[in-house]
């Protein structure tokens, strides 16, 4: 599928546009955006158009288009900046498979039969869209999140992240794709072991030697995470703390990223933000927190247990305050910079921890 060409004409500039073939405007790959739309309307238009693209590309990389658009819009990007990112990003993407017939089975049965299979993405999407239309988004989320949360590491946390952004944007069609994607990429990392009385940092310190000299096979983040989870020493370890709270998880994720600047651990921070958004929709929140900690710990171990005791220095040239950071992120073409700055800004507003400012500066340097 060829990328869409966007023309946002301002009538004051029409004198500078060369004559075009009249058939040009009826071509299916051309969309004219109303220049009078505000940023929210532009974002929704682009999200709708972006749903023609598969949630993954190049054998497993996550399509960040909807996440980046929503983050940009929430950080104050202009319609022109939203369009610029869209046009920059879509050429790499692949087409969404054709819609499947709506399944007759119930949601939980559908997930049981389909999760972990990307080939089942169309039928998952069809079934979840039907459920959202009939029961509403909140009820569907309350039914599916407990089923999906043991596989929170799916697509290197991008399943939960894409879903959380869709919920924030109040976009049910986008949420249906996110849920289907999470289910299709579903990845469990093993049963939860019995809790022990130890801090997250102490548990990480004890398990660090498991992968510090481990030679990983070639692959992407989820491949390395699955490899860690299969190691006998990890499976036998007491890796769950006695008690666990969201702010403790968020602090560990933030510290791990600040002290390494590592790309994998960046996703631990953005994933924790996503979990905060969705946690009120999950009845057994402790269970959700424990599965997220398991995934975060495995993500850190998959880096070779990078040193998380020394803080990474920020680039002195990076923007120094939130206003400057948000402006810079809205001009960025790197989807991970956009997502990370947005996450750090949102988490700083929630937790009031200025360490998120330093993390955002690391990401944007």
Which helices and strands, and how do they pair?
Elements: E1 5-7, E2 30-32, H1 39-50, E3 56-57, E4 61-62, H2 65-75, H3 79-89, H4 107-114, H5 121-135, H6 137-148, H7 158-168, H8 172-184, E5 195-196, H9 200-207, H10 221-229, H11 232-235, E6 240-241, H12 246-258, H13 263-278, H14 285-301, H15 322-331, H16 335-351, H17 355-364
Helix pairs in contact: 1-2, 1-3, 2-3, 2-7, 2-16, 4-5, 5-6, 5-8, 7-8, 7-13, 10-14, 12-13, 12-14, 13-14, 13-16, 15-16, 15-17, 16-17
What does this structure look like?
- It is a single chain.
- The chain contains 17 helices and six strands.
- The chain has 365 residues and is mainly α.
- The strands form three sheets. It has a two-stranded parallel sheet with strand order 1-2. It has a two-stranded antiparallel sheet with strand order 3-4.
- The protein is globular.
Condensed summary:
The chain has 365 residues and is mainly α. The chain has helices spanning 39-50, 65-75, 79-89, 107-114, 121-135, 137-148, 158-168, 172-184, 200-207, 221-229, 232-235, 246-258, 263-278, 285-301, 322-331, 335-351, 355-364; strands spanning 5-7, 30-32, 56-57, 61-62, 195-196, 240-241.
Q: Characterize the largest beta sheet: strand count, sense, and whether it forms a barrel.
A: 2 strands, parallel
Q: What overall form do the CA principal axes indicate?
A: globular
Radius of gyration: 21 Å
One letter per element, helices H and strands E, the order comes to: EEHEEHHHHHHHEHHHEHHHHHH
Query: Structural class, judged by helices and strands?
Result: mainly alpha
Extract low-pLDDT stretches: 1-32
């Amino acid at each position: 599928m060829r990328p869409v060409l966007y023309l946002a004409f301002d009538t004051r500039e029409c004198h500078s546009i060369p004559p075009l073939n009249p058939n040009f405007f009826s071509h299916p790959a051309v969309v004219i955006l109303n220049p009078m739309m505000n940023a929210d309307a532009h974002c929704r238009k682009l999200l709708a158009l972006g749903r023609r693209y598969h949630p993954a590309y190049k054998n497993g990389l996550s399509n960040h288009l909807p996440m980046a658009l929503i983050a940009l819009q929430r950080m104050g990007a202009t319609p022109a900046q939203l369009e610029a990112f869209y046009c920059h990003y879509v050429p790499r993407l692949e087409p969404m498979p054709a819609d499947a017939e709506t399944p007759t089975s119930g949601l939980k049965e559908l997930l049981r039969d389909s999760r972990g299979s990307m080939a089942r993405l169309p039928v998952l999407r069809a079934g979840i869209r039907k459920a959202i239309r009939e029961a509403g988004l909140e009820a569907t989320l309350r039914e599916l999140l407990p089923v999906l949360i043991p596989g929170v590491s799916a697509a290197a946390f991008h399943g939960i992240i894409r879903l959380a952004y869709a919920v924030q944007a109040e976009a049910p069609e986008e949420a249906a794709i996110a849920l289907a994607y999470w289910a299709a990429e579903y990845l469990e990392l093993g049963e939860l072991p019995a809790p022990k009385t130890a801090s997250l940092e102490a548990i990480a310190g004890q398990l660090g030697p498991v992968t510090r000299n481990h030679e990983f096979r070639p692959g992407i983040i989820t491949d390395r995470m699955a490899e860690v989870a299969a190691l006998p020493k990890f499976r036998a370890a007491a890796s769950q703390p006695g008690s666990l709270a969201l702010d403790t998880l968020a602090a560990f994720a933030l510290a791990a990223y600040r002290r390494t600047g590592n790309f994998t651990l960046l996703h631990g921070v953005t994933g924790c933000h996503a979990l905060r958004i969705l946690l009120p929709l999950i009845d057994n929140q402790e269970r959700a927190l424990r599965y997220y900690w398991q995934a975060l710990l495995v993500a850190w171990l998959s880096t070779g247990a990078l040193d998380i005791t020394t803080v990474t220095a920020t680039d002195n040239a990076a923007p120094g305050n939130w206003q400057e950071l948000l402006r810079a992120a809205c001009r960025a073409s790197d989807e991970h910079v956009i997502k990370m700055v947005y996450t750090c800004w949102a988490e700083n507003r929630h937790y009031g921890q200025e360490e998120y400012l330093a993390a955002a500066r690391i990401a944007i340097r």
